[in-house]
Amino acid sequence: MHTHLDRLYDHLGWADRLLLEALENAGAPSEPVLRLLAHLFSAERIWLKRLRNEDTSTEVVWPAFSLAQCRSVAEASLAGFREVLGTATAERLAGSISYRTTKGQPMETVMEDILIHVALHGAYHRGQIAALLRREGQEPPTTDYIAFARAKGSGS
Questions:
Q1: What's the pLDDT band for 28 if we cut at 50, 70, 90?
Q2: H or E segment and range at residue 153
Q3: Which of 13, 70, 91, 120 is the most buried (most CB within 10 A)?
Q4: Tens of pLDDT along 55-88?
Q5: Torsion of CA 22, 48, 123, 156, to 10 degrees
């Protein structure tokens, strides 16, 4: 079991669901909010495909997703990351993943570093979205890790 990674992905799923629910309940999000949200979920899908050694050449980093498409991609990606985490050995997590960047450059990165990056990347963009929502006069949900820990308890 990869307790810290599992916990990060529990937070990722919780935070993404909270944000999506808030946006769905508030009505149509602004273009800048939806653009960042779509990027967040597209990037997660791209990284998941890289971990699975799948082709990413047709993936778009900044897609024009609807809110419903964002939810669909987010749910599918989270299920995929849970599967990856559920089958990854310590040796595999420490091993390198070979892939091509979105610009086509060959790259290798340790699997665990990719998984940590995905979780941090999501937190970064959820923070940007929260700032945009505040500027638009809305109160975003609190998606900080500590709020998750308080809501879920330290062992779940």
A1: confident
A2: none
A3: 70
A4: 999 999 999 999 999 999 999 999 999 999 999 9
A5: 80
27: exposed, middle or buried (C-beta count within 10 Å: 0-12, 13-18, 19+)?
Answer: exposed
Instruction: Please report, for the chain, the start and end positions of each structural domain, with discontinuous segments joined by +.
Output: 3-152
For residues 87-114, give the mean pLDDT: 96
Q: Domain 3-152 carries which CATH code? A: 1.20.120.450
Considering only residues 104 and 154, tell me which one the structure prediction assigns the higher pLDDT. Answer: 104
Spell 37-48 as b/e; 16+ CB within 10 A means b.
Answer: bbbbbbbbbbbb
Whether 117 contacts 44, CB under 8 Å: no
- Does the pLDDT value for residue 155 go beyond 60? no
Token pair belonging to 63: 């897609």
99, 54 contact by CB (below 8 A):
no
DSSP label at residue 66: -
Nearest to 53 by CA among 99, 120, 115, 106: 99
Task: Identify which of 99, 35, 102 has the alpha carbon closest to the alpha carbon of residue 70.
Answer: 35
Structure tokens at 46: 């791209």
